[in-house]
Amino acid sequence: MSAAGPSNYTFFQIKNTKTGQEVPIMGKILNFNYYESIYSSTVSGSIALEDVGGAVEDEKTGVLATIKDGMKITGFEEVAFHVFNESGNLNFRNYPLIVTGSPSVDESNRQTVLLNLASKTEMISSSNPLSRNYPEAPISDTILKILKDELKISKDKLDIETTKNQDKIKGKNQPPLDVVTKMCRKSIPADYKDPGYFFFETQDGFNFKSIDGLIDEGIKSFSNEDYSKEHTFYYFASLAANLDNDNNNYKVLRTPLVRKDEDQLRALRTGMYNVRIITRNRLTGEYKEEIKNLLSSINLGEKQEKPVTNEVYCKSYTFELSPGQDDPGVSDVILNNPADYVPQANMRYSLLHTQMVDILIPCNLNLRAGEVIKLYLENITQGNKNDQIYNNLRSGYYMICHLCHSFSQTNSYTSLTLLRDTRELYRSDK
User: Fold this and answer.
1) What is the pTM of this model?
2) Less packed terminus of the chain by CB within 10 Å, N or C?
3) Shortest CA distance to 368 belongs to which of 404, 397, 396, 395?
4) In what side-by-side order are the strands of the sheet with 197-202?
């Protein structure tokens, strides 16, 4: 059996939280999409529902009606579900997603109702703006407090990577999730050199993780044989290779779409190689100028190299320092000088998008946004049988940026948007 076949719903229901009315919808789902992304603080979903009437008894009239009319869906209804196939489980039975508003109707089929779903935490965050300010402390400690105290997320659902630097955090009546997201670019990991974090939710919980940490941990996971098998995928351009039934669940089902490839002009403009940092002391009026090389030490491919040119191309940054920030004895402790993280963070985020590829695979419920996979892409042309089978420049480690599990009545697939910061097939893991 292929994971591209239909998945199984063991539980799928919608609940009106005002009346307590619960309606199973397993046999009525035409399409269900589930989404994760390292650029989204919460998961989300969407449902296309066959709503032909006679499914729900209207509590006031007793007349059998459609789900939309009988339940009077307007938003805040809970959708709980459990989906499984041979790859794994997608279980939101105890953590339902929330209907975001009134359903819409598919104009091509008036019997099809469309529902958009959001994480319950997203709804709580949007309705409870953060007004309090947090004193200077390690950023990761404050993030943990906000998520636990303000959003009531249990500790077992949180994976917070320790930050080296500390800062004050002001609520400013913003949604707590927005406050946490804004701290990503200011955060420097304790165990890695480069600043830059992602804050995102997967089916396992919430993650506040550095870019370098995600890459390093993801690649180290390949030392586990089971992980390596479940996170390695192949694309064969030749029909003969695709007719081979071995490991069909790990074959890319259509030609990968390359959305972005290495662009040296963009790299130079965004300061991926060199930056000019200009600082001004408020008290003395003194200016300092420094050119820094910002090449990253943690990569998905082989170590990146600066382009060979006769010129030094730089993106310039200018900062005004508060009293004491230019004192190494102070700055080294608190590390909240923007010159210490703004250029480096911009470099790291830009670098991660050196290559960007979309692929479609049989539904794989083991995958999560932020994980690292291996992708092997067959060369389009080959010489003799001893020639290199895989494309060295496009194959290798990638990070999952966006993930969508898509379920229909006949098929189930996973679509992935993958990111990589350097080219080349093999990374030196020794």
Assistant:
1) 0.88
2) C
3) 404
4) 158-160, 205-210, 197-202
CA angle, residues 398, 346, 258, in degrees to nearest 5: 35
Per residue in 166-202, pLDDT (tens digit) is 999 999 999 999 999 999 999 999 999 889 999 999 9
- Cα gap 179→171, rounded to integer Å: 7
Mean pLDDT along residues 150-179: 95
Q: Which residues of 186-212 are buried (b: 16+ CB within 10 A; e: fewer)?
A: bbbbeebebbbbbbbbbbebbbbbbbb
Closest CA to 105 of 76, 70, 68, 72: 68
Phi and psi (nearest 5°) for 132? -80, 160
Cα 73 from Cα 105, distance rounded (Å): 13
pLDDT tens digits, 351-387 = 888 889 999 999 999 999 999 999 998 876 655 544 5
The CB density around residue 360, as the number of other CB atoms within 10 Å, is 17
What are the beta bridge partners of residue 274? Answer: 293
Do the beta carbons of residue 146 and residue 125 sit within 8 Å? no
* Tokens encoding 234: 């192949």
The two structure tokens encoding residue 321 = 């320092």
Largest CA distance in the chain: 81
Amino acid identity, position 266: R
Q: Is the pLDDT of residue 297 over 80?
A: no
Instruction: Tell me what the mean pLDDT of segment 211-227 comes to.
Output: 94
Let me know if 417 is exposed, middle or buried by CB neighbors in 10 A (0-12, 13-18, 19+): buried
SS3 per-residue string spanning the chain: CCCCCCCEEEEEEEECCCCCCEEECHHHEEEEEEEEECCCCCCEEEEEEECCCCCEECCCCCCEECHHHHCCCCCCCEEEEEEEECCEEEECCCCCEEECCCCEECCCCCCEEEEEEECHHHHHHHHCCECCEEEEEEHHHHHHHHHHHHCCCCHHHEEECCECCEEEEECCCECHHHHHHHCCCCCCECCCCCCCEEEEEECCEEEEEEHHHHHHHHHHHHHCHHHHHHCEEEECCCHHHHHCCCCHHHECCCCCEEEECCCHHHHHHCCCCEEEEEEEECCCCCEEEEEEECCCCCCCCCCCCCCCCCCCCCEEEEEEECCCCCCHHHHHHHCCCHHHCHHHHHHHHHHHECEEEEEEEECCCCCCCCCEEEEEEECCCCCCCCCCCECCCCCEEEEEEEEEEEEECCCEEEEEEEEECCCCCCCCCC
CB distance 207 to 199 below 8 Å: yes
